[in-house]
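Checklist before submission:
- one chain only
- standard amino acids only
- sequence pasted in full

Submission:
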Amino acid sequence: MIIPAIDLIDGKVVRLYQGAYDKTTEYSFSPLHLRDSYAAAGSPLLHVVDLSGAKDVSKRQLALLTELMSNAPLHIQVGGGVRSEQDVASLLAAGASRVVIGSLAIREPALVQGWIRKYGGERIVLALDVSINARGEKTLPSHGWIEESGVTLEQVLDGYIDAGARHVLCTDISKDGTLSGANVALYRELCTKYPQLAWQASGGIGSLADIQALLGSGVAGVILGRSLLEGKFTLEEAIACWQNG
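Returned file contents:
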């Protein structure tokens, strides 16, 4: 599945470069226009990130998120600044198909595992974003990539699988926003090692060839952000590429 993404800061559509808030590109598209155009292109799912809320929970854009999800023409998974069960419940009540949980999933796994048991693995997406160090370890920075957690991807996965987790969005931070191609080897490894999880690949897609490179990797979805916003190819072309191999 091809999954277009909309990242939001203060109501504006943006993209970060390698997760850095000081390397932000702002786009003139309105979030609602993008949502509707992506739905019209045939996408069944939209990925929305509240970057304001991810950085400062007091600046969560709940009103805008609610507007995006109300009577939406496609399913929406949404994350950014999810810090409590009330946040999960309010986003689901506002129309989210799935709630994406990032840094909290790393810092408080027992808490988030409890939410998966309560709401079900289909309603929660774990955003486990990796920074691959010199030893090849997949470490998991927390707090929206701002702080290093010292925890590895493998260390957290077993508990989540036992809790019934189903969806994991994995970004190689070094690739994010770069248009330099996805880390195909990473996704092949993860899909082989954890076939019970539906992996969403994110970061680095800059061409249709980059999408083709992920065919056969085992990933269930491919997140597209900057490449669509900058017209590297159309969403229709991306969907056709994925479906036709």
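Reviewer check: The mean pLDDT is 93.
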